[in-house]
Amino acid sequence: MPRSGDHGDGTVHPQAHDDNLERFEAHGAAPLPVPNEEGYVEHEGARIWYASYGAGVPVILLHGGLGHSGNWGYQLPALLGAGRRVVVVDSRGHGRSTRDARPYRYELMASDVLAVMDTLQLERAALVGWSDGACVAMVLGITAAERVAGVFFFGCNMDPSGTKTFAPTPTVERCFSRHAKDYAQLSATPDDFEAFVGAVSTMMKTEPNYCADDLARVRVPVAIVHSEHDEFIEPEHADYLARTIPGAELILLSGVSHFAPLQRPAQFNQVMLDFLRRLGG
C-alpha cells in the first residue's frame, strides 16, 4: 500500500492511497475542522447531532451505516475549498446522535435530516450520501424533492435484491474495527455497540424496499456512483438504478471499493465536485 502523503499523525494527504484501510483503522479519517455551528436537534425521540462549516451553496454529507460524520474527513476540506457550505449529520443512533427504542428505518433517518435543515433554515441542499446515507438521500429525493437540489448516491441499494452475499474481508474488518472504536468514544451509550450493530444490520437486511415505479418518480438530478470492487452492492443494481431513475447518470470508480472516500479521496472528490458543479447554484 502506498505510504506517500502520511502526515505523521496518521492522517493522509488527499492524493495518497489507503486501499487496505490500514491507516483508517489505526487513526480514522482526517479530523474535521472547527465548525461555524454545531448542536443537537430534538426530533422523533432522538437527539440528532449536526455541524455546519463555511458559506455558500449548501451540501449535506450523509455517512454510511455504523459510521459517523468524521468519516468525511477527506471530503469536507475539498468542498470548503470549492466554496460550499457543508453540513454533516450523525444519523440517529450513530456517532453523537441518540435513538429511541424503535427499529431503524431509512424514512425516519430522512425525517431527521429535514429537521436539521429546518433548524439551520436551509430551504434546499444537495445531498451526498454514502451507503446507508445514500439511501437516506434518495428517500428524500423521492419524498421531499422540493428540499433536494440533487443526490450523489454512492455505494447503496434501493431494494434487497441489490446486495451481495456478505463475505468478510480484511478491509471490511478494519473498517468495522474503526467503527467500534469510534462508537465507544462518541456514543451516549458506549457499551452498546453489539446491540447497535444488530439493530442496523436488521434494517440493512430488510430495507429499503423501493420499486421501479417509486424510482421513476424521482425528479431531482441523481448520480449513481459505483466502485469497481464494492463488497456489498451488485454492479447490475447500480445499472438498474441509473436506467430507472429519470435522467440519472452512472459513474464508475476504478480500483476502489465500498470505502472509496477513504481509500482514494482525490478520485472520489473529483467526481463528487464535478456532480455538484453540474447542479450549479
From TrEMBL:
Keyword Oxidoreductase: yes
InterPro entries per UniProt: AB_hydrolase (IPR050471), AB_hydrolase_1 (IPR000073), AB_hydrolase_fold (IPR029058)
Keyword Hydrolase: no
Pfam family, one: Abhydrolase_6
Domain of life: Bacteria
Keywords in alphabetical order: Oxidoreductase, Peroxidase
Molecular functions (GO terms): peroxidase activity
Domain AB hydrolase-1: 59-270
Stretch forming the signal peptide: none
Name of the molecule in the record: Peroxidase
Species this protein is from: Paraburkholderia xenovorans (strain LB400)
